[in-house]
Amino acid sequence: MAQFKFTPVKIGIRPTIDGRREGVRESLEDQTMNMAKSVATLLESTVRHTDGSFVECVIGDTCIGGVTEAAACAEKFKLNNVGLTITVTPCWCYGSETIDMDPHMPKAIWGFNGTERPGAVYLAAALAGHSQMGLPAFSIYGTEVQEADDTTIPEDVKEKLLRFARAGLAVATIRGKSYLSIGSVSMGIAGSIVNQPFFQEYLGMRNEYVDMTEIKRRLDREIYDPEEVKLALSWVKQYCKDGVDVNSPENQRTPAEREELWENVVKMTIIARDLMVSNPRLAELNYGEEALGHNAIAAGFQGQRHWTDHLPNGDFMEAMLNSTYDWNGVRPPYILATENDSLNGVCMLLGHQLTGQAQIFADVRTYWSQDSVERVTGYRPEVGFIHLVNSGSAALDGTGQHTDKNGNPVIKPAWEVTEEDGKRCLANTTWCPAVHEYFRGGGLSSQYLTKGGMPFTMHRINIIKGVGPVLQIAEGWSIDLPENVHDILNKRTNETWPTTWFTPRLTGKGAFKDVYSVMANWGANHCVATFGHVGADLITLASMLRIPVCMHNVEDDKVFRPSTWSAFGQDKEGQDYRACSNFGPLYK
């Protein structure tokens, strides 16, 4: 089976120490190295890559007391594919002589809060050096004083170590990978005007492009694995249920035409995946060039309208690739954005990297106030809400048919998904013939309803002239509506697409004064919904990439950015803008 291949990024742990011999350094060697080992144990038992494997840590061969040992450690990290570093110390060390100076690696320093040696003094001195050299680093310092022989990691330190590690791992993993545009700009949508400097300078990614006719070429010339097509079609007949056809009789397809449609959308799915990643099976079929793929960790399909006015839409292709289960079994999702909205594709990629979960791509479609719902349905909800709905990339995991140990609806990371989870998602999804007015070439759209009570984080990157990329975040929950109310509201837009009813957590001020304000302040027609409240992780990740956050409802005490951000004023969001502007894109 085709699958994205990568060499796992490792986390480097740098134990730094007071370089003075004849008593000082010798007394600290064990304590310092044990700090490094305790951090490695935490990370290696908690943080995973998106394929489910636990991250591996690399510890410097010796404690770092000066520049020679720092250089030796850097060389070891280079040889071991280290992508981010955490420096640990319980004591004073020689500031700029011991720091990590790689400009592209996310970096953090944990200074032990103890009274015997001045770990906090080194932390402050090293951070000052980082700031002066333009190398932002994250400061980790426990609230409570620990005893010198205490090898435990306090909870507040642990939280910051894990947040830094998740975000830094995402930054390092996407570096050097590709975003593949299949087609070009869809209906003038700004996000599908692919901004190459953004990918290169902020994400460290490259851009690849193929025309949509490449899918047509592979369809016509049968450049796919025929055995996989046969397997997929058999699987589709068993698990993909027919949905409602809302088209007028003259625009409805015959059973034979519908069978041909299924065959085409299944082949499109396999072809799009093969375009993204390598598939050795194609080389066996004498298609060596096509077998290589484009090293794409994410992609987008233009579809509308140059393709969909004539050929089947990409809804099945996008929904299935973004899900964690198909005819080949359970596997990590392939990130594919509808309408080639590359900015939403990036948010899907970041959400997936942070959580290992499939992502929901959606239109930010409609704000429903309490009064409007009552007027239309006779039912008055407790609060207004936003209708998230789109025909394409919403993963089937978004049905909420995965459950945790308490029976609550969740979206599991791919490594926890079972075949039964996948089958339940399919059982709660129907495939509706595409609405002719939208898609003259036909197609099949997934139709499902996300279960209520699930925590979600809505997020979106937009590019602003003169500013660059900015990130929006809104944490909240999916909600349930009475069945008849859902039916009435859903049919007012397009009942053949997947729906999530979403209400954000309100703060009573600014963009989160009320639900209407969230909708009014959203900067684009699309968003990504990631399961869980991961806004704090997104904020940390954005600061690493130098992308300011223009809107969020994350609690202040969870905002974790490089320490030097505090040098840019007192207000946290103003700090963020000024610091990101000052330091510039990570890879520029």
Automatic annotation (TrEMBL):
Residues binding Mn(2+), per UniProt: E339, D363, H526
Cofactor(s) essential for the protein: Mn(2+)
Pathway(s) served: Carbohydrate degradation; L-fucose degradation; L-lactaldehyde and glycerone phosphate from L-fucose: step 1/3
Catalytic-site annotation from UniProt: E339 (proton acceptor), D363 (proton acceptor)
Domain L-fucose isomerase N-terminal-2: 177-356
Segments passing through the bilayer: none
Name of protein: L-fucose isomerase
Organism annotation: Bisgaardia hudsonensis
